[in-house]
């Protein structure tokens, strides 16, 4: 069966990192590696499935480690620190970190370490950044097994996290060069950081036709569709996209629609903003969709307004579908979108800049087509699933061979 690897995922919702993990598990060499999955939450895949079902479909054992609700005592302590350190955001965060460390992280680490020992695990593989996987890092230390961290987003770090990561994590898989540079600047040893770009299955086709999607969304053939896909959370800054669309609508006479694919904690706030701007007829929320490619395929322009990413899978998907991209000029994204060739890069948190570039593409159908074609070519040449799988396998093999 090869080496036994424990996957630790502390996330609460389905996202690009979930998709990339599942693609890895489908394709990795089963003769070399076997997996057991340990999740804190059995989060949903829309209304049709959940992560446990998807993991078990692959023949992988799934363990759920439910998290206890915070006690009244812990809530009071945290609130006290917020009041006590009102003058310093850094001190507030650091104090609350230590409350979490002793009340949640350390106890979880002991449980995870025991699971590692009981199951004779050879390596623990953590599916995100250090701050959300500290218990996994500490569990590796307690159990005496190597740890690999797959960092998929620019993380929050403090000196304790940097120190523990440097001591106990053997390798950090970074999804972009920019992410690796960030980690090294924050103190992570450069020899621990390996860049493996996310990959995409270039043979995959949308399930629904453009005609079906347009009928479902009640969009006519004449309308130009601006769209985005992602979890509706703060760092995605979908409110900036709505603001940009409002500005675009005022400056063009062409019929346009904004399609937002996804769900999340910001949805109610975003719906209110749409009503406030009088865009109820032009903005469509589809909710979570398990087949985002079908929706991306009907977009004329894809937009990503995030303030922080790793290497956003959704841009890979959009470029594969031949769509021009307007995106924030942030780490990770700048390694995907070639300015003026496959799309436009603009400052994050700047709806006016987004509106300007969206208008440029609305007014130039030929430019949209040309950028889309160049984007697809870039994906086919540089971001295949095969490169992604081989890159991760190589990291596992290096770490495990040194252990042996």
Q: What is the CATH first-level class name of the largest domain? A: Alpha Beta
Could you name the ranges where pLDDT drops below 50 across 5 or more consecutive residues? Answer: none
The CATH homology group name of the largest domain: Glycogen Phosphorylase B
Largest sheet: 7 strands, parallel
List the helices and strands and how they pair.
Blueprint (H helix, E strand, L loop, with lengths): L2 E7 L6 H12 L5 E7 L4 E2 L3 E2 H7 L3 E4 L7 H13 L4 H30 L4 E4 L7 H10 L3 E5 L7 H10 E6 L2 H9 L7 E3 L14 H8 L6 E6 L8 H14 L4 E6 L5 H10 L6 E5 L4 H5 L4 E4 L8 H8 L4 E4 L14 E4 L4 H12 L2 H18 L2 H19 L1
Parallel strand pairs: 1-2, 1-6, 2-5, 6-7, 7-8, 8-9, 10-11, 10-13, 11-12, 13-14, 14-15
Antiparallel strand pairs: 3-4
Care to describe what's here?
This protein has two domains: 3-199 and 385-403, 3-Layer(aba) Sandwich (Rossmann fold), CATH 3.40.50.2000; 210-382, Rossmann fold. It has 404 residues and is an alpha/beta fold. It is built from 15 helices and 15 strands. The strands form three sheets. Strands 5-2-1-6-7-8-9 form a seven-stranded parallel sheet, with helices on both faces. A six-stranded parallel sheet has the order 12-11-10-13-14-15, sandwiched between helices. Strands 3-4 form a two-stranded antiparallel sheet. Strand 3 and strand 4 form a beta hairpin. The mean pLDDT is 94. 46% of the residues lie in helices and 17% in strands.
């Amino acid at each position: 069966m090869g080496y036994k690897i424990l996957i630790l995922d502390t996330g609460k919702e389905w996202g690009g990192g979930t998709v990339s993990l599942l693609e890895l598990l489908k394709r990795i060499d089963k003769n070399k590696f076997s997996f057991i999955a340990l999740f804190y939450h059995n989060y949903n895949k829309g209304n049709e499935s959940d992560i446990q079902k998807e993991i078990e479909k692959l023949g992988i054992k799934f363990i759920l480690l439910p998290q206890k609700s915070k006690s009244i005592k812990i809530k009071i302590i945290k609130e006290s620190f917020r009041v006590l350190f009102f003058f310093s955001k850094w001190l507030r965060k650091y104090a609350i970190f230590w409350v979490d460390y002793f009340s949640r992280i350390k106890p979880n680490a002991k449980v995870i370490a025991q699971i590692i020992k009981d199951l004779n695990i050879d390596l623990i593989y953590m599916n995100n950044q250090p701050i959300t996987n500290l218990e996994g890092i500490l569990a590796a230390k307690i159990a005496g097994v190597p740890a690999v961290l797959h960092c998929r987003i620019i993380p929050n770090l403090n000196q304790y996290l940097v120190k523990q990561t440097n001591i106990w994590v053997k390798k950090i898989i970074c999804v972009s060069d920019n992410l690796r540079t960030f980690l090294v600047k924050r103190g992570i040893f450069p020899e621990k950081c390996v860049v493996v770009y996310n990959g995409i299955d270039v043979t995959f086709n949308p399930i629904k036709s453009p005609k079906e999607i347009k009928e479902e969304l009640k969009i006519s053939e004449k309308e130009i569709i601006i769209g985005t896909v992602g979890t509706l959370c703060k760092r995605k800054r979908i409110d900036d996209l709505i603001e940009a669309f409002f500005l675009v609508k005022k400056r063009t006479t062409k019929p346009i629609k904004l399609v937002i694919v996804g769900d999340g904690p910001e949805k109610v706030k975003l719906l209110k903003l749409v009503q406030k701007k009088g865009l109820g007829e032009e903005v469509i929320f589809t909710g979570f969709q398990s087949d985002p490619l079908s929706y991306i395929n009907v977009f004329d322009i894809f937009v990503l307004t995030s303030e922080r990413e790793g290497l956003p899978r959704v841009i890979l998907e959009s470029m594969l579908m031949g769509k021009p991209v307007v995106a924030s000029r942030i780490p990770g994204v700048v390694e995907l979108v070639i300015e003026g060739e496959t799309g436009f890069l603009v400052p994050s948190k700047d709806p006016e800049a987004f509106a300007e570039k969206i208008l440029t593409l609305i007014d130039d159908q030929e430019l949209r087509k040309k950028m889309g074609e160049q984007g697809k070519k870039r994906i086919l040449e540089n971001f295949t699933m095969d490169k992604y799988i081989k890159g991760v396998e190589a990291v596992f093999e290096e770490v495990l061979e040194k252990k042996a």
